[in-house]
From TrEMBL:
It comes from the Bacteria. It comes from Planococcus plakortidis. This is YhzD-like protein.
């Protein structure tokens, strides 16, 4: 399992959410990340999901 980091921000840069979770693959992590964003109504906020290697899997400004 690999550890991924999801963060969401207000437009002014204030951190709203920061969460880490594990997944087997980048695709699985993207699905989990989107589900978390939808659950917390953060899909339209600035957010990013980074892999352990630093690759951006999800990004929205």
């Amino acid at each position: 399992m690999r550890t991924y980091k999801l963060t969401a921000y207000e437009k002014n840069g204030k951190l709203i959410e920061e969460e880490t979770f594990t997944a087997e693959t980048d695709d699985e992590a993207k699905k989990k990340g989107l589900a978390l964003l939808e659950e917390k109504a953060l899909t339209e906020k600035t957010h990013r999901l980074a892999s352990p290697a630093g690759k951006l899997l999800l990004f929205h400004t």
